[in-house]
Design goal:
Shape: globular
Helix content: 25-40%
Oligomer: single chain
Strand content: 5-15%
Distance between the termini: 56 Å
Structural class: alpha/beta
Strand order of the largest sheet: 11-10-9-5-2-1-13-12
Largest sheet: 8 strands, parallel
Amino acid sequence: MGQPSPAQKPRSEDDRWWRSAVIYQVYVRSFADGDGDGTGDLAGVRSRLRYLADLGVDALWFSPWYLSPMRDGGYDVADYRTIDPAFGTLAEAEKLIAEAGELGIRTIVDIVPNHVSDQHVWFRAALAAGPGSPERDLFHFREGRGENGELPPNGWRSEFDGGTWTRVDDGQWYLHLFTPEQPDLNWENPIVRQEHEDVLRFWFDRGVAGVRIDSAVLPVKDPAMPDFVPGRDPSPFVDRDGLHDIYRSWRRVADDYGGVFVGEVWLPDAERFARYLRPDEMHTAFNLNFLARPWDAAELRASIDETLAEHAPVGAPATWVLCNHDVTRTVTRYGRADTSFSFASKVFGTPTDLALGTRRARAAALLTLALPGSVYLYQGEELGLPEADIPRERIQDPMYFRSEGRDPGRDGCRVPLPWAADEPFAGFGSREEPWLPQPALWSDYAADRAAADPGSLLTLYRRALALRRRTPGFGDGPMSWLPAGGDVLAFTRPGGLICVVNLGTAPAALPCHTDTLLTSGPLDDTGRLPADTAAWLRA
């Protein structure tokens, strides 16, 4: 085990940095390949830290980099204290945390409390120990129903389609809300709780600034394991009240280090969502409501109003995100006839207009960066990457296989990044084809080409992030809507800042202003804001 690295001083010693931060999500496997084996790794990330500093982000959130069989892209963790050899070593992770800190960039790691890998030492011991053993009590093992226990204990459905129970050789069944390779942990067992608090300390000791909590509403189950009835509350496995005691205990650990928590909280009920953001629980949660809305002024305004209203009672800052490692790329989604997002609606062959989607993605970038709170930026969004069409024989995502090929899965947003247009595999760094194939025109989106183009989305993000950092009024704080046409969003921020976004089809007049700070595209000849364009102004 390596020695803990001291936490590096970030750009600001303000312990409220997270309320206004721009946080960049790194999916290590697809970010950059440092050793040429076709898989992204920590060496690749370290080689691109200057790029991230020049982009202007405040923190990096790393999707799981731990030891894993990769049955679900690393979210099947076998050991939280070991870096997967495909990515590097613990010593390299410590160096990465320190080197990022020297550039003023904090590090956030991912924890998956609902489940572990079936290769985790606990689960392997549970299989060997047999029914009624303490080892099995770390998970949810149950006898089956039916005359000979041949039926699963209940009819719960998986997050990835299919059933949630798998039978083992001695006849018992174990619960997995995701894949059979991801057995759910029993959070009523104190050993499970203590282990996760120890894991938190392990990473805080190594200088991380925060932890993102995956599937945060799922870990606690109803011990009776009743059948799930849609619409009946409370759910036997979603948003159980016992979760809050867990996160309060975690918060005490984080407070010892000045660390922060970011929750993945998918809940339609605003009041129950806000409970996770009380001052003694999580600091922030992903705004998945906003992400799912279509490119429509009324829809986005409603989401913004709902978001700010549900955060206000607990004093938590809002977060804004357009895409992540599970969601269709923004330029593809915004170029479709249906610009909303839902997992249920994903199908193969959905047409898109990438030019239209890119215009809208540029405008959406300025919208999200102007709203109150913090922003999450998924790797490659700043390059305008589209969703890639992965040949069926190359798909690896379990969502595709569990749906019997109906769902195209999430691999299309996880394709290795293009860094250099004229290098093999668009400069990803591989000597051989990367773990997922890159589309034929991937080099057109390469970072080196985008950096040299004053009209690229990368240039827009760099300019916007620089303005946001140095201009008072952005980030956490109040906002007020301005009168505007039905297809226009216009609001003010402190210091006379104005953001205007035209989501309609006709040019829109700008409100009175003294200066134009930045636009996502040129104004028309009369100084009006064209369709699918945004502007930052000063009153």
